Amino acid sequence: MQLFLLAACVLAAPVIAAGPAVLPPDLPPYAPDKPLPVPQIERRTLDNGLEVWVVPRDGVPRVDYVLAMRDAGHGADPADAPGFAALFAGLLSEGTARRDSRAIAEAAQSYGGGVAASASNDGVLVSANALTSHAAPMLSLLAEIVREPAFPDNEVALGKANALQSLRAAQAQPSFRAARELLAATFGDHPYARTQPTEDSIAAVTPEALRRAHAQRFRPDRALLVVAGRVEPEEIFRLAQSAFGDWTATGPAPDPAPAAPREAAPARVLVQRDGSVQATLRLGRPALAATDADYVPAILTGTLLGGGFSSRVNQNLREDKGYTYGASAGFSTSRMGGRVQAGADVRNEVAGAALQEFFSEFRRLAQEPVPEQELLDNKRYVAGGYLITNQLQGAVASTLASNWLVGLPPEFLSSYVPRIQQVDADQVRGIARRYFDPKDLSIIVVGDAAAIEEQLGEYGQFRKVE
Fold first, then answer.
1. 163 with 85: CB under 8 angstroms?
2. H-helix or E-strand containing 299?
3. Inter-residue contact 310 to 348 (CB < 8 Å)
4. Total domain count for the chain?
């Protein structure tokens, strides 16, 4: 799961530093942050093990469904099939035993909504929404997609062609190549390192392989259905029983992903990109899982350090030094582990200096207490973003389902903001010391060695990759 998303790094160019905005002195103080109201969640488990959570909401006449399937994501992909889960999820709604992809899309549209699916490290989310007047047929359609995907030959061929085209476009981007090297340096041979497909892994996908994966990965005893909207819980339980009650597992369950490493020997990798006028810098290491006691302090620390325009690394590298259009740093977390990542795309002539500024900010955060106002501003930023995101019922359903995939309880939804507010400067400094020590970070650089290699000498011996 990634509750905190890294700020985008874009093409580097000189920028003009601007002074801080001066606000009128008589502005009223901010109002206190409000926690999300504790959602009323009615729960029931069907005899086959499927959990059903219903979140009644007043508002628009709409119902949102999210079905989460644990251990069905990239963590279940074999070593020779990187990125398989993403293609698998994308093809779930492209045909069932009863309807082709067009019939599915037309049915969903006729109910006033749509269907979608996506894969993460820890599972697959299949979502649907409809007008409440069509809650029953939409849930039946969702069950059909989840239980009876056909993976038709023509749709699989089209999906593979599209995936291959997307991969080739991505491989031309230095950020994609940097991410691949950093994932390998961070997670080694753990499944979390294998989220990016290869041409060979895409070519190896067949309808039969997809059907086998579905039989193994999709099973009611590892599934959660979250329903939010203007609905009556007892009616939803009745509909869920009708749509899913006779669903049974048909294959051996996949083994859960093992624990991801918490430490890794720091790597130094220089990926050659002939003629590049900029250097793509990525720094990282293994970190903590979403269920770790330090998860909430880590999210706040990452935001303060590199999670927004006003963050320290962005203010330093962009606003003060003019090295880049954007610099970021933060955490990405999953059920069995997580990682730190920082990065920026900078002009060739400042590649070494930019690395030094990253390390300077990491050391400063580890050594000096965060000023009270800066800490408060970042708490408000994190809390406000979370509150805004989870105002919509579809977002509430998705957050509950995503949290469940990574092992977080439903109560986490409403406790997150109060827990952010309780983080203190000592906790932030402790997180920085544990996870942003420069000596423990891998450094990946994509660029033209002729232009940047000399600047990298003080950071160690770099392995060159063509």
1. no
2. helix 295-306
3. no
4. 2
Tokens of 129: 């929404």
Residues in the chain, overall count: 466
Q: Return the amino acid letter for 324.
A: T
Are 427 and 356 contacting, i.e. CB atoms less than 8 angstroms apart? Answer: no
Phi-psi region of 62 (alpha: psi -120 to 50; beta: other; left: phi over 0): beta
Instruction: Identify whether residues 303 and 217 lie together within a single domain.
Output: no
d(CA 282, CA 301): 18
Contact 123, 405 (CB under 8 A): yes
Q: Which domain holds residue 349?
A: 268-465
Per residue in 125-179, pLDDT (tens digit) is 999 999 999 999 999 999 999 999 999 999 999 999 999 999 999 999 999 999 9
CB atoms within 10 A of CB 126: 26
- Domain membership of residue 31 (yes or no) is no
- Shortest CA distance to 10 belongs to which of 156, 129, 174, 180? 174
> In angstroms, what CA-CA distances link 165 with 168, 172, 204?
5, 11, 15
Coil vs helix vs strand at 101: helix
Using CA atoms, how far residue 118 sits from 29, 66, 83, 224, in Å, is 41, 11, 12, 15
What integer is the mean pLDDT of 220-232?
97
